[in-house]
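Dear colleagues,

As part of the handover before I leave the project, I'm documenting each prediction I ran so the next person doesn't have to rerun anything. This entry is a single chain, and its sequence is reproduced below.
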Amino acid sequence: MRFKDISGKEIINANLGIKLGVLGQTDLEINEKTGQIEAFIIPSYKWFGLKKEEEETMIRWRDIKVIGEDMIIVEAEDIYK
């Protein structure tokens, strides 16, 4: 799967029932040795998405349960900030 295939999908936490962000607005943590994605880093925005706050939410690849047509479902007991 290519990044362009999953870009723009909403990231939903199934345990909390909340939207965490949109994949196109995230950073990626990539393992330099393997080249594999290890986590999505979702910035926090305020003021209608104009100003990035200091806090970030990290979603580990292992927490992703389903990549669907419109969204990515994660099951994370704790959200890494």
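The chain is about 5% helix and 50% strand. Residues 3-6 form the longest helix (4 residues).

All the best with the project,
I.
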